[in-house]
Amino acid sequence: MNVVLTPGLYKVRYSTGTDTFEQIFEASPAENPTHLALPQLTTPRAATVATAPDVLGNIEAMAVTLSKQPGLPHGTGSGCFIFAMDLPATGPNPALSTAPSHPAAGLKLLTFDGTIIADFGSVAPQNGCAGMTIDLDPGSYLLRLEQPGQDALEQTIVTCSGWQTQVLLPLQLTSTRSTMRVPNLENATILMSVLGSGLNPDPTRNDSVDMARRWLARREPVAPVAELRQAVNDANVLRQGAPGQEALRSMLREKFTNPMLGIYATHLLTLTPNPDESLLYEVSTNLKILLGHHPDVTAIDLWLDPNMEAPPFLSPPMLRNSWAILVNRTRRYEALVPRDSYTVRIADRLWGSGAWLVWCTPPPQTGTQTQQPVDLKVLSDYIRKQLAGKTTSQFVNEELSTKNLTGVEASVLAYIAEVTRGRIATKVLADQVGKIAWLGPLNGVYRRLIPSALEQRSVKAANHFLMSDNVVQQLGIPQSALSEAAEGLFQKFGLR
Question: pTM of the prediction?
Answer without folding.
Answer: 0.83
